[in-house]
Design goal:
By secondary structure, this protein is an alpha/beta fold. It has 4 domains: 156 residues, 3-Layer(aba) Sandwich (Molybdenum Cofactor Biosythetic Enzyme, Chain A), CATH 3.40.980.10; 57 residues, Molybdopterin biosynthesis moea protein, domain 2 (Alpha-Beta Complex); 80 residues, Beta Complex (Molybdopterin biosynthesis moeA protein, domain 3), CATH 2.170.190.11; 73 residues, Beta-clip (Beta Barrel), CATH 2.40.340.10. 19% of the residues lie in helices and 32% in strands. The strands form 8 sheets. A 6-stranded mixed sheet has the order 7-4-6-5-9-8, with no helix packed on it. The longest helix has 19 residues. The structure holds adenosine monophosphate (AMP) and magnesium ion (MG). Magnesium ion (MG) binds next to loops.
Length: 394
């Protein structure tokens, strides 16, 4: 049995290769740039007005002759001479000869003239060509997550596609003779498979786009076939169930028979002690203990960072902070405990309390939790007010 930190280190040392792909901006939403992106346009593309108002060629006095009108989208063909003005709209091209734009609110128009009732400074309300960025300059750097603002920035500088890290393809293999899909199918001794839904949605939440789901009986032959199929269509395989020491737990043996290099089995933690990790070629395999809470803890602590690292996300692990422990718990000293917990703020200070119902078959507490409190190895009692590490659930 190895420690949590050793297990995390081994997984990091066996990272998935980062695959890259050119995608349209819309398809790249949520993904990470795999290279710097350069602007294809000057932005603004041309000097333009920041206001609805008048472009002025300043002379003596505050009255100007209106020579025309420029709307957004027009090409400015007027030339302003001293004492001239043009009606202008926000975003419209600035005509040649303009000193400044004045906003409509401080003007009066009458008989083809405009009277300006406020001081005018050279360059007022003009957005200059290239003020934001010039053609060929770096718009966004490698590693940037393409959220809506990043995507709109790229679109505005004339970029229409981007090289991004492609999320790994992941297969879920659920094993258990007791598992059925729905309440209608239940016979004595059977339960509803919740892990498929758990893992599928947790993978989606992590940004995984291609997910394949398989179900196998607890039978070495069918499990072997299923896992082989899962490996053939994905970069990483998550096996749920059958990794413990039961007479009907076949996942570990089958994976080894299939040529998986076992990198660790069993971690000094609660829940999720029987966690297994291995590699076949460049593909990785996680054997997750079948208990629903163990599946999810192991997913968030080990699988989530492993997959997100391959997507170029930094940091790849759950958001982490330290909070004051509220209450007191006794635990096994040689294990790290990941407790389903509630992070809350009191007087702007972070506090965390453990949610009741921590047995690994119980999901109710997970449904209520917003975080995992990490109660470290080497400690038997965590006291009220102690600072503990908290991992925020996404
Ligand atoms: P195992 O890891 O196969 O020994 O399973 C441990 C516990 O988790 C048993 O009580 C199983 O019935 C339960 N379990 C296994 N797989 C699932 C699943 N897909 N959905 C819900 N419970 C499961
Ligand atoms: Mg089982």
């Amino acid at each position: 049995m190895i420690s949590v930190s050793e297990a995390k280190k081994i997984i990091q040392e066996h990272a998935l290769p980062k695959k890259k792909k050119h995608l349209s901006l819309e398809a790249a939403y949520g993904l990470v740039l795999a290279e710097d992106v350069l602007a294809c346009l000057d932005v603004p593309r041309f000097d333009n007005s920041a206001m609805d108002g008048y472009a002025l060629s300043v002379g003596n006095g505050n009255s100007f002759k209106i020579k025309g009108e420029i709307k957004a989208g027009d090409e400015a063909e007027i030339f302003l001479k001293t004492g001239d003005a043009a009606r202008i709209m926000t975003g419209a091209m600035i005509p040649k000869g303009t000193d400044a734009v004045v906003m409509r609110e401080v003007t009066k128009e009458a008989n083809g003239d405009v009277l300006v009732e406020a001081p005018v400074k050279q360059g007022d309300h003009i957005r200059r060509r290239g003020e934001e960025i010039r053609v060929g300059d770096v718009a966004l750097t490698k590693g940037k997550v393409l959220n809506p603002s990043a995507l709109s920035y790229l679109a505005s500088v004339g970029v229409d596609s981007a090289l991004v890290y492609q999320p790994p393809k992941v297969s879920i293999v659920v094993t258990g003779n007791e598992l059925v899909n729905s309440i209608e199918e239940l016979k004595p001794g059977q339960i509803i498979d919740s892990n498929t839904l758990t893992l599928k949605t947790a993978l989606k939440e992590a940004g995984i786009q291609e997910i394949h789901c398989f179900r196998s009986q607890d039978d070495p032959d069918s499990l072997r076939q299923t896992i082989e199929q899962a490996l053939s269509v994905s970069d990483s395989v998550l096996v749920s169930g059958g990794v413990s020491v039961g007479h009907w737990d076949f996942s570990k043996d089958v994976l080894n028979e299939l040529g998986m290099k076992e990198l660790f089995w069993r971690v000094a933690q609660k829940p999720g002690k029987p966690l297994l990790f291995g590699q076949k070629g460049e593909k990785t395999v996680f054997g997750l203990p079948g208990n629903p809470a163990s599946v999810l803890v192991c997913f968030y602590e080990y699988v989530y960072p492993h997959l997100r690292e391959a997507m170029g996300l930094i940091p790849s692990h759950l958001k982490t902070l330290r909070a004051s422990f509220s209450g007191q718990v006794k635990k096994r000293a040689h294990l790290t405990t990941f407790s389903r917990a509630e992070l809350f703020f009191d007087n702007h200070q972070p506090h965390v309390r453990v949610v009741p119902g921590q047995e690994s078959f119980r999901l109710g507490s997970f449904a209520q939790a917003n975080a995992l409190a990490v109660l470290p190895e080497g400690k038997e009692i965590v006291e009220n007010g102690e600072k503990v590490e908290v991992h925020l659930l996404p």
